[in-house]
Amino acid sequence: MSEDRQYSSDAQRYMDGELHAPLSDTEQKDADRLMHAVQAYSEQISAPDSHLDDAVLDEIRKARSRSAGWRWIFEPRAIRLRPVWVPLAAAAIVALVWLGGRPGTSTDLAAPQATALGDTVFVRFQLLAPEARRVAIAGSFSGWTQDALPLVKENGGLWSITLALPLGEHQYQFVVDGERWIPDPRAHAQIEDGFGGTNSVVIVGPRGVVQS
Amino acid sequence: MKTFGRYVFLIAVIAFPSSLVAQQISVRAQLEARGLPPALVEEVSTVAADATAQGLPPDLMVDKAVEGWAKGVPQARIMAVVQQQARLLEQAHESLRAQGFDAPSGPIVTASAEAMGRGISAQQVGAVIEAAPTPEAAGPGLRVAAALSAQGLGNEQAVQVVTRAMRRGETPEEILNMPSYARAMRAQGMEMGQIGERLMQGSGAMRGAGPGPGMGTRPPGVPPDPGKRPRRP
Amino acid sequence: MELSDGTVVRRVLDGDVELYRVLVERYRGQFGKYAVALVGDSDTAADAMQEAFIRAYRSLSSCRDPERFGAWFHRILTNQCHDARSKRPDPASLDLVDLPGDDRADAATEQTELGDAIAAALAKLTPEQKEAFVMKHVDGRTYEEMAKLTGVGIDALKMRVHRARDGLREMLGGVL
After folding, report:
1. What digits encode the pLDDT tens for the residues C92-115?
2. Residues 29-88 of C with CB under 8 A from A
3. Cα–Cα distance for residue pair A78/A81, rounded to 1 Å
4. Residues B92 and B138 occupy one common structural domain
5. Is A41 touching C (CB cutoff 8 A)?
6. pTM of the full predicted structure?
7. Which of A18, A65, A73, B67 yields a CA-CA distance of 20 to 30 A from A122?
8. Residue C46 belongs to domain spanning
9. How high is the ipTM of this complex?
């Protein structure tokens, strides 16, 4: 869209009904032309008439009488759930809908490992590196400092760390033995870092980072 | 003292959103706290100051400088990338203005620049920003679109998934969950096409507010609608 | 005395089904033109509105705040209208809507042609722009009212309306 096809911000405010100072002649004419055209349009159209009310009620009555056995699906019932049920039911069903089954157990390499705490979520990062002597994680959440976030080695050469991260996107890499920067194969995406390397990207939502 | 200061800063960076920290600490101070040498601090600060003077946010440039230094990248290369970020920001700002966004905020320009840098077109970026119910929702929406695209959905479908979710009234937090869900579905063997469709439908089954089309609250086992209802006379 | 939305919803849920007519009449009046403007065709809009009312009735128990039935229904109606709109064939091309040069037809014809031009151009706006523009300029709502109906922030709504105006100007330059 070219700039001269845009209304000025004063003209926009005028059309919003929020400008109290006069516009230039040209701006005034331009704005008024649009408002006049819209007025013409608005007068041309009319809302549906009361036949619609009859049609809606007819349909509702017909549906109710169609089959007593299915009546309950057509009659909106007041459903009262105790407050504590709703989030648990929601969480369970959402998990089924989205994951199609139970999440992995904690012995799985890539089980979902996140708990929400307000706007911060605990996210567990893991790397299988049996030969490494030390592994750290460095990323946008730590100013890319590699010293401060060492992973802990567990059985089988699996290194892990749990971090409290704010919601949103985070870029990071693992640093192996203080010198090799490597991406996380379980990240959501890999992007070029601009320096010839690759950053891993993880998007943290309130449910954490669900991996399976 | 230097180490202590670094850890205090680290805790601050992890505890608070980076944009908030950036607002409170000047560009120069951030770069110095990261141990960048004076010459590099000077060069990056100059580019950042130019950007700020044009109304562009300096965050991307500062972040890239810090990242490059931590990774041991040569200074000349760091500056080349910093300049590249500055150009991306300018382009993003121009393109948003050309699409009629009057005064895009710093975070929106940053998110747009990043998205365009990852292959999302300017028009697609505009579509996400416009569909966002609040300005704060635009950034997360763009990042999720970029991530979904990189995960294999492709730009167009990724942007559609996000804009539809926004129109359905899903919150930014719910949208942030999408890349994780996509990943989980992929790991279970679903094809990207199927994943895209599931994401398009959203998590409407569990929303308490009124359903949109195709997301009715019909309980399982109930037969579908008997047929087209009669029109009004 | 007029019954509030909340009162009507609760009574319908308790079994007084005929009372639903109160809501149908109320919101047919309030949102009828909006539906026509979104869909672009009166008959199809009426069908979409009928469908929206039926869906709202069926899901009435899931309306979280019965006092704000209107806002909840507005979203259902908007979705239904977009669906109906997408199933219609393409609207007439803008090329057909050209005001004659200097030989102006009479005032009434000119008004009709202006209105037709707006209708054709509206169809080409994005869904968000069209919704916001119609609420602002066809329904005459304030931004505060629009925010309450849609749950969208006022700044975002203003942006959509401003872009819609620019878009219409771009499309209708010669006609306006």
Report:
1. 544 444 444 445 557 788 888 888
2. 29, 31-33, 35-37, 42, 45-46, 49-50, 53-54, 57-62
3. 10
4. no
5. yes
6. 0.61
7. B67
8. 1-89
9. 0.87
